[in-house]
Structure formats: structure tokens, C-alpha cells
């Protein structure tokens, strides 16, 4: 009996010891696994944080670069816009100032633009007496004999740029645009100075005609190379020398020297074949 109890006790002790060892190993494995899992989680967290930081930094860098580019583009567009508006304002302001005061336009304007500005009344022209006048000061298109109208644009002073013809009484007015202003270049001044222009020997000449008296006619021609540069003049005329105005007693002269009728006739034929009348 005692022996059986000893055996039973021994078996219980063995089983208990075995369970204790098994539990210890299980707990050890659980501790090891827990530590490994924790380490892996920490490494994963570190990698995640590093990846997140890298992405954030890349996003911040990309956004910063994009923002810088946008700011530069916006700045350039703003500057260009300001410069464009400034130039437009200067031009408009200069034109308005010229229209109101007759002062020079500060910005560079082409010949054609200046002539257009005069036609639409935005700027004045300077007369030969150095006084300003506007197109509204002229009697335009009324149909009266002394009214004016807009004529052609022709290079009247042989400088490669057109002048503006204002057709009117006694040949009207020829206007030249230079130095950012419009100037009176030539003007008809009555029956003794009727204005027209001709093409003679390959150049354009301004001509003033006097046919006021029967048996007398005189012509004065001027050639320019630029409106302020007179390079040649020519005078020719026909007049009766008989007090009774008898035909056949005419005298013909060219630049003060007497010439024959044939020479005078040939000269007039060349000149008047190209004359442009601007009284219409």
C-alpha cells in the first residue's frame, strides 16, 4: 500500500515538473516572440516615419519649387503688364496733352500716325507763322468754294515719307509730319500764289502760279529734300511787252534770262503734263 502511494506521488511529481518546464518554455517563447514582434513593429514604424518624412519633404520641395515658379511667372506677367500699361498711358497722355496744349508728343509716333491724329482732331499743326491750328478750324467739306477736304498723301519733299494734302482754296494746304509734330509745309495764298505740285526731272516740285492778269503768267517752283531743306528753285514766266497788249510781243524768261518761245513752250509742256491741281 505504501509502495503504491509512493509510486502515485512520484508520478504526480514528475507530471507537475514536466508541466512546469513546458509552461516555462512556452512563456519563454512568448517573451521572445513578443520582443521580436515589438522590434519589428519599431523598425516598421521607423521606416514608415522615415518614408512619411521623405514624402513630406519631397512634397514640400515640389510645392516650394512650383510656388517659386508661379511667383516668378506672376511677377514677370505683372511687370510686363505694368510696363505695357505705362507705355500705353504715356502715349495716350502725350497725345491728350498735345491735343490740349499743342506741345510735342513725348513718345515716338510714325509719320502716318501723326497725320491721322491731325485728321481726327487729336493734335494741332503748326502754321508758317508758328501758330497752332486744328482741322476743326478749317471749313471742311461744306461744298463752298473756300472749303477744304482731305486729299492724297504724296511724297512732296522727296524724303521717302508722305505729306498730307488738304485740298482747298488756292491749292489748299500741304502738311508735313516730322519731329513728332505736324507742320504746314506749303499753302496757297491767293490768286497770285496758287499752290500745286509737279513731277519734273524725276523729282517732285512745289509750284506757285500767278495768272491774275491777262497777258501775264508767272510760275515759281521749289524742290526739297526734306521739308526743311530747299535744294533748288526755278522761275519762268510769259508777259506782253507791248503796251497795247498786242499778241506776238510776248517775252519769255527762265530764271531771269530771256528764252525763245519754242524753249518756253517745251518747258511748259513738260511741267504742266504732270501738274496736280489741289484746289478741288
Automatic annotation (TrEMBL):
Superkingdom of origin organism: Bacteria
Keyword Signal among record annotations: yes
Region named Disordered: 34-77
Biased amino acid composition, Acidic residues: 52-63
Polar residues bias: start-end ranges: 34-50, 64-77
Signal peptide (residue range): 1-22
Alphabetical UniProt keywords: Signal
Protein name: DUF4652 domain-containing protein
Gene source species: Parablautia intestinalis
Amino acid at each position: 500500500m505504501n509502495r503504491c502511494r509512493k509510486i502515485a506521488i512520484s508520478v504526480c511529481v514528475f507530471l507537475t515538473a514536466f508541466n512546469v518546464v513546458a509552461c516555462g518554455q512556452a512563456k519563454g517563447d512568448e517573451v521572445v516572440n513578443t520582443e521580436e514582434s515589438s522590434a519589428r513593429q519599431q523598425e516598421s514604424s521607423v521606416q514608415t516615419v522615415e518614408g512619411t518624412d521623405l514624402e513630406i519633404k519631397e512634397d514640400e520641395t515640389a510645392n516650394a519649387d512650383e510656388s517659386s515658379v508661379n511667383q516668378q511667372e506672376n511677377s514677370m506677367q505683372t511687370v510686363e503688364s505694368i510696363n505695357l500699361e505705362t507705355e500705353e498711358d504715356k502715349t495716350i497722355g502725350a497725345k491728350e496733352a498735345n491735343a490740349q496744349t499743342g506741345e510735342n508728343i513725348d513718345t515716338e509716333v510714325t509719320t502716318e500716325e501723326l497725320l491721322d491724329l491731325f485728321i481726327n482732331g487729336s493734335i494741332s499743326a503748326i502754321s508758317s507763322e508758328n501758330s497752332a491750328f486744328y482741322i476743326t478750324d478749317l471749313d471742311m467739306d461744306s461744298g463752298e468754294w473756300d472749303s477744304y477736304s482731305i486729299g492724297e498723301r504724296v511724297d512732296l519733299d522727296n524724303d521717302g515719307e508722305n505729306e498730307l494734302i488738304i485740298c482747298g482754296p488756292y491749292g489748299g494746304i500741304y502738311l508735313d509730319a516730322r519731329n513728332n509734330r505736324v507742320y504746314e509745309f506749303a499753302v496757297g495764298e491767293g490768286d497770285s500764289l496758287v499752290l500745286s505740285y509737279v513731277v519734273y526731272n524725276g523729282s517732285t516740285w512745289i509750284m506757285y502760279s500767278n495768272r491774275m492778269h491777262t497777258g501775264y503768267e508767272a510760275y515759281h517752283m521749289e524742290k526739297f529734300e526734306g521739308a526743311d531743306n530747299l535744294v533748288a528753285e526755278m522761275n519762268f514766266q510769259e508777259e506782253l511787252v507791248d503796251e497795247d497788249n498786242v499778241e506776238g510781243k510776248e517775252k519769255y524768261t527762265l530764271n531771269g534770262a530771256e528764252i525763245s518761245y519754242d524753249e518756253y513752250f517745251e518747258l511748259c509742256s513738260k511741267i504742266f503734263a504732270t501738274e496736280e491741281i489741289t484746289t478741288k
